[in-house]
Design a protein that fits this description.
The structure is a single chain. The protein contains 8 helices and 15 strands. By secondary structure, the chain is α/β, with parallel strands linked by helices. The chain folds into 2 domains: 159 residues, Rossmann fold; 157 residues, 2-Layer Sandwich (Dihydrodipicolinate Reductase, domain 2). The strands form 2 sheets. Strands 1-2-13-14-15-12-9-11-10 form a 9-stranded mixed beta sheet. The chain has a 6-stranded parallel beta sheet with strand order 4-3-5-6-8-7, covered by helices on one side. Strand 7, helix 3 and strand 8 form a beta-alpha-beta unit.
Length: 347
């Protein structure tokens, strides 16, 4: 049942689901625990009633207590340094790889060469996003395949926001849509570059890789449609604002678009439709879902429309989406360990 508060519509309540009695607790191994996404994953796992941390791997943090870097202690557990050579010596029901692009493949190859595989591998890099051997983990649009998956490729953060906007419009597109993305600098990771350097970002935004970005190819591949994508980094830490401009095959209105999206996401409690109100990055930070709105129609050419999707790049764009996918594969409640962020009193 959807909940309505002003112009905002949510498809469910905000309460985190509790542990169902019939499920066993599963062990999780996390490789790449030092990064921003790794820390988010540790904190979600720490509050998840059906997941226990088996190990957290970080070469630089090896020997340090997890509680020194994350808001969770796991009983004093420490970071370990686990390599692609010895990862198979550790037993975990679920292995999450939160590594940069190309760094996950050696771990995947080692695990899959072992006779005893974990029941599930979740890869947050782009390494498996373009292969049919792995299930693409966009749960709002691929839940049926995810429920039986043993190998999941988690979508990229920009690609998540763009696809959440574009999928309901696919039957109506007549021209190549344009996606203008602005991300906080945490999306560039911890290794220093112009995209996470405060001096380079001060008082402005930094455009980068304006053609053939990996996420542009990812969006186009999984929508089976051409797209243009322009990424930018801004001097705030986390969050993404994705503005999408499209031309449709018919005239429309902001009210009609709102109804289209409410219908498309009625059964998806992590998606919030804000109508003509434009979603703000400041309001999505730390939340596990997405906001879609700011529906705008050109009054002179009402087949030209624009809208905005906001997500927290570290949560719905990475860590919480990985947990959402794990929940689906294991038959847990989809929101177990997560929250929509919706306040039932509308405040």
């Amino acid at each position: 049942m959807s909940a309505n508060t002003g112009n905002k519509t949510w498809a469910g309540a905000a309460k985190t689901e509790l542990k169902p009695a019939r499920f066993e607790t599963l062990s999780v191994g996390l490789v790449g625990a030092r990064g921003y996404v790794g820390i988010e994953l540790l904190e979600i796992i720490g509050s998840h009633p059906l997941l226990d941390l088996e190990y957290a791997s970080s070469r630089l943090f090896e020997g340090a207590r997890i509680s020194e870097h994350a808001k969770v202690s796991f009983g004093g557990q420490k970071f370990e340094h686990i390599t692609s050579e010895n990862v198979v010596e550790r037993s975990a029901d679920i292995v999450i790889l939160a590594l940069p692009d190309a760094a996950a493949t050696p771990f995947i190859d080692a695990i899959e060469a072992c006779p005893k595989n974990p029941r599930l591998i979740v890869d947050l890099s782009a390494d498996k996003r373009f292969t049919n051997d792995w299930v693409y983990g966009l749960p709002e649009h691929n839940a049926a395949a995810l429920r039986s998956a043993t190998r999941i490729s988690n979508p990229g953060c920009y690609a998540t926001a763009a696809q959440l906007v574009l999928r309901p419009l696919l039957p109506l597109l007549t021209e190549t849509p344009h996606c203008f993305g602005v991300s906080g600098y945490s999306g560039a990771g911890k290794n220093r570059s112009d995209r996470n350097d405060h001096r380079a970002l001060a008082n402005g935004v930094l455009p980068y890789k304006l053609v053939n970005h990996t996420h542009e190819r990812e969006i186009a591949t999984h929508l089976d449609a051409n797209v243009r994508f322009s990424p930018h980094v801004a001097p705030f830490f986390r969050g993404i604002a994705m503005t999408v401009q499209v031309r449709l095959s018919e005239y429309t209105s902001a009210a009609a678009l709102r109804e289209l999206y409410i219908a498309a996401y009625h059964d998806h409690p992590l998606i919030e439709i804000t109508g003509e109100d434009t979603p703000r990055v400041q309001e999505i930070v730390g939340r596990d879902g997405a906001e879609i709105g700011g529906f705008s129609v050109n009054p002179e050419r009402p087949d030209e429309v624009a809208m905005v999707c906001t997500i927290d790049n570290l949560r719905k764009g990475a860590a919480s989406q990985a947990i959402q996918n794990i929940n689906l594969t294991q038959g847990f409640g989809e929101l177990t360990g997560l929250s929509t962020g919706f306040k039932e009193n509308g405040e």
